[in-house]
Amino acid sequence: MNKAKAVVAAIVLSAISGVSGASAQGINLSGQWVCVVDCLAPPGTFAYITQYGWDLNLVNEVGVPSRAWIDYPGHIWVQRANQGAIYSPDGFTLQFDSGTIWHRAPAVPPPLRSRG
Question: What is the pTM of this model?
Answer without folding.
Answer: 0.72
